[in-house]
Structures are given as C-alpha cells and as structure tokens.
Amino acid sequence: MTRDIQSAPAKGEPVLRLRGISKNFGAVSALTDIELDVNGGEVVALVGDNGAGKSTLVKILAGVHQPSAGTIEFCGEGVTLDNPAKALGLGIATVFQDLALCENLDVVANLFLGHELAPWQLDEVAMEVRAWTLLRELAARIPSVRQPIASLSGGQRQTVAIARSLLLDPKLIMLDEPTAALGVAQTAEVLNLIERVRDRGLGVIIISHNMEDVRAVADRIVVLRLGRNNGVFLPDASNHDLVTAITGATENAVSRRLDRKTGLANEQSGGAA
Ligand SMILES: Nc1ncnc2c1ncn2[C@@H]1O[C@H](COP(=O)(O)OP(=O)(O)OP(=O)(O)O)[C@@H](O)[C@H]1O
Q1: pLDDT band at 199, cuts 50/70/90?
Q2: Disulfide check for 59: which of 64, 175, 213, 223 has CB 3.0–4.6 Å away?
Q3: Alpha carbon of 173 to ligand 1 centroid (Å)
Q4: Which residues contact 73 (CB under 8 A, 6 or more apart)?
Q5: Predicted local confidence at residue 191, as pLDDT
Q6: How confident is the model at residue 5, as a pLDDT?
Q7: Quick check: CB of 6 below 6 Å from ligand 1?
Q8: Which residues are within 8 A (CB) of 3 and not within 5 positions of it... i.e. 6 or more apart?
Q9: How far is the CA of 101 from the centre of ligand 1 (A)?
Q10: Is 28 close to ligand 1, i.e. is its CB under 6 Å away?
C-alpha cells in the first residue's frame, strides 16, 4: 500500500541496529559478526573493496538473503526479513544499481509500477498530480513526468528510482552506487537529492566506491573489509586512514599515489605563495 512520505522517523532516533550479523555461502564467509547502526536523518556510507561484503549486507536488509547468524532491530524491534516484500512492508527500501526502470514507460508509469493496490492506481490524473508533487518536494529536475525513461539522463533516472522507493514511505533507504557512471553535474544533483531524503528524517545507507561523494554526503563512513567491520569514520577522516581501513595495508599503491598528489599540490601552492 502507498502511504504519504511525510511520516518518517524522528531525526536521531535509531532506525537500524545490526549485531553479530554473519552470512555464509557454503564454505565462503561473506560476512562475519557485522555491527551497523543507522539513525533517522543520517546518511551512513558503506565502503569497502570488491568482495568486502557490502552487497551481501544490503541484500540481507532487502530480504533477499537470510543471515546465518545475528540480530536485526528495525525501529526498536527485532525483525526477520524473510523476503523482499517483508522488508519493503516494514519500511526498508532498496534502490539497486540497475534501477529496474522500464525504458519505454514514462515517469508517472514508472513511479507507480507495482503499486497496484493503491486506490488511485488507475486514475491517471491523480497519479500525475502525485508524481509532480513528489518530485517537487524533492526539488527533482525532471522536465516532464510524461517523458519516457529512455529520454532521461542518468541522474534523472536515479531520481525517478529514488522517488519511486519513497512512495512506499520507507524509514530506511539503501542506495547501491547511486552516482556510478554519472557526470559531475548529475552527481551533484543526486547528492542533493540524498540530502533532501535525509532531511525528511529517513535513515540512508549509501554504497559507494567514490570517496569524494561519500565525504560530500555521509555523516558516518562504515568500512567493511573481508566481510568484517574495519572502522567507523567521520567524513573529515584522512584519505590515508580510510584507504588503510579499506585495504588493510598502511603502505599501499593507493595511499602512496594520494600522498604523491598531496605532496605535489603542497609544493605547487608553496611555490605560488
Ligand atoms: N550468492 C553467493 N554465493 C556465493 N558467494 C557469494 C555470493 N554472493 C556473494 N558471495 C561472496 O561473498 C563475498 C562478498 O561479496 P559481496 O558481493 O557482498 O561484496 P561487495 O563488497 O559488494 O563487492 P563489490 O564491491 O565487488 O560489489 C565475496 O567473496 C563473494 O564472492
């Protein structure tokens, strides 16, 4: 059922609390003893190298995978997320990287796709008004809600996918690489949108490999490495500390490269002064 997007949790209230979450796929331990806390009105970035376990954790919260061990508290209550419908019903929305939009349908149709139970589902005018209202509330830049998805930019598509997930009035929204493959302006637009979603009081989990985007929008950065927690950072943490937590090595190619670049920039600014 579709509800109004205003009824989000109060800011700062715990939305999600994971303790001891583990997930084994046969002999592979994808996650071991994971802790994660997300509050209302907070963006938490989940970062880690390939294979760190980010997608597995998101899929557990989306009800796609069942944890092998551990507890999930959602809005103060212990829950089991047996399937995606249960997670959605509780208020956990996920925007996967493929966005799952229908290219040939317009924005309105995509927003309401799958919400067949809504009373106004077949009322085209009501759906269009609701689509405009929602997109305006999000200050989204979509020229026309009657445009087919195929004609929209990557940033606009991401916006439609996020708006669609908000129609179900979630308390937590998970975004998998929302800025991957976007240009500078589109990335800024999506980051602004994430901030507006946060300002509504929702908890937001964002998976990203882009540290610049993570720093720009996250309130906390949670690092996973080899399926385990490997540090929680504020966005002003140094690149060196973040890269060290992500890769597990204090001396590595990424941090050497960053140090070289920083050194070069300092030399240049020193020379110019
Ligand atoms: N369905 C599955 N069956 C078996 N092993 C899996 C399955 N899904 C994930 N894994 C394993 O779990 C580990 C964590 O993978 P996961 O995809 O969660 O990492 P990730 O951090 O999302 O990586 P990436 O950034 O590359 O998407 C990897 O070793 C992966 O091979």
Answers
A1: very high
A2: 64
A3: 21
A4: 14, 16, 17, 18, 19, 79
A5: 92
A6: 36
A7: no
A8: 168, 169
A9: 24
A10: yes
Question: Is there an atom of ligand 1 within 6 Å of 34 CB?
Answer: no
Structural domain tally of the chain? Answer: 2
Pick from 51-55, 97-101, 196-200, 226-230: least confident: 97-101
Same domain, 40 and 89: yes
Residue 48 alpha carbon, nearest atom of ligand 1: 21
Q: Please tell me the residue having the least CA distance from ligand 1 atom 6.
A: 25
Nearest CA to ligand 1 atom 29: 51
Using the predicted structure, report yes or no on whether residue 3 has a pLDDT greater than 50: no
| Ligand 1 closest atom vs CA 25 | 4
Q: How far apart are CA 122 and CA 115, in angstroms?
A: 10
Task: Kindly state the tokens that stand for 225.
Answer: 């490495």
Instruction: Identify whether 129 is part of a domain.
Output: no
Q: Which domain holds residue 62?
A: 14-102+171-237
- Predicted TM-score of the model (pTM): 0.86
Evaluate whether 220 touches 16 at the Cβ level (below 8 Å). Answer: no
The answer to the question of residue 8 being in a domain is no
